[in-house]
Amino acid sequence: MLRADVRPRELWAWAMYDFANSGYTTVVITALFNAYFVAEVAANAPWATFAWTLALSVSYGLVVASAPVIGAFADLHAAKKKLLAVTTTGCILFTALLYFAQPGKLPLVIVCVVASNFFFASGENLIAAFLPELARPRALGRASGWGWSLGYIGGLTTLAICLAYVTWAQSREMTAREFVPVTMLITAGIFALASMPTFLFLRERALPPPASNNAPIHSAWKRVRQTLCHLEAFPDLRRFLVCCLCYQAGVHAVITLAAIYATHAMGFAIRQTLALIIVVNISAAAGAFLFGPWQDRLGHVRAIALTLCGWLIAVVLAWMAHGQLLFWLAANIAGLCMGASQSASRAIVGLLAPPSRNGEFFGLWGLATKLAAIFGPLTYGTASWVSSGDHRLALLTTGLYFVIGLILLKGVNAGRGRRTALRAENRLRQKTLAKVAS
Fold it and tell me: 233 to each of 96, 223, 357, 361, how far by Cα in Å?
């Protein structure tokens, strides 16, 4: 499974970053702080939900603009680990500053949300770029699945600790304004502590190209422009990135709005919604862990196609559900497919990217997934608005993204794409040697 110079401890250290950073998305974006922002910081104003989604959209827009450049710069300077340290510190710092989130401090809170989410997403791309250096091509799915499943466990662990504190605080009649800010410190502290193995044991194996140690930032911009202009030389990767943009839009819509759908379409109470989030995360961890080996055996394209079919089944069941039993079934199918599809996406990009440009091409993957994070929830929200609050119709509309993803996936050939990446790598090496010789 691992490359010759990689020890199991190093793969564990890499996967621990998924464990460390998942608490941020679970607590801040999905389960706790988002509701606090709307109800307390923005005082349930008519524009409160819009302000929250706008802040996230701005952060994702910044990632879209910067991810390929950050990746190219990391490749030029063999600096993935250094940049990962910067993004990790940034996310931890701005998450901790959310401790000061109180009514009347909306501008500060929005800045902290935008900055923390930007650093989180940038770090997510950088840690993914280490995957091809650790696992052999035939085991990318398994390794990615292990990391992603550990990430869901990390998110659940952080959420459980925060909920334990919230329960204790409520028993002492503390208000949300008192205990929710403290959970931001808990989340930041767990991120810092759990990411330490990554920086202690994960090695930076990439070497900068000759004469690139002092390359300025505009060299990274130039390299990205060249890649975008010549992306047609990687037809399978290009088609997969477009495919990924489509189906990830559906995934992000479900992740972002599942709690809202459960509340408004299914009539779930807060405790039921939190229980739903916990159970779905457990299903997602199981899906990522169990599906990884299947992906390596079945083939990356077939494996993703299978998960997209599962997503369609989950969407249709949730649309049909009027009782809780059928909705819980749909939610758990979605959880299994969520873990499997997220893990499989990361693995196939590692397979189709030239080895010396992992950071750059994973930056393009980050660009696609963050564009999806903007379009997916926006599509759901628009459909809900146009249909006068019909969340069932909005969910069914979002399911079209999975249909489009399946259609685009038919044209992706992973074996051909891998051969294309290796040929491009050989050409890059020959050009580098020629420059050195001259």
Answer: 44, 15, 14, 13
| Block residue for tokens 């459980």 | 160
Would you state the pLDDT for residue 226? 67
Spans of the chain, pLDDT less than 70: 209-230, 270-271, 432, 435-438
- All structural domains of the chain, each given as residue ranges with its CATH number in brackets, are 8-202+223-437 (1.20.1250.20)
**Residue 250, number of CB atoms within 10 A of its CB:** 29
Q: For 383-424, what is each residue's pLDDT tens digit?
A: 877 887 788 888 899 899 999 999 999 999 988 999 998 888
| Long-range contacts from 376-385, C-beta under 8 angstroms, 24+ separation | 376/248, 376/249, 376/250, 376/251, 376/252, 376/253, 376/256, 376/401, 377/53, 377/252, 377/253, 377/256, 377/257, 378/53, 378/57, 379/249, 379/253, 380/253, 380/256, 380/257, 381/53, 381/257
Please state, in angstroms and rounded to a whole number, the distance separating the CA atoms of residues 256 and 30: 7
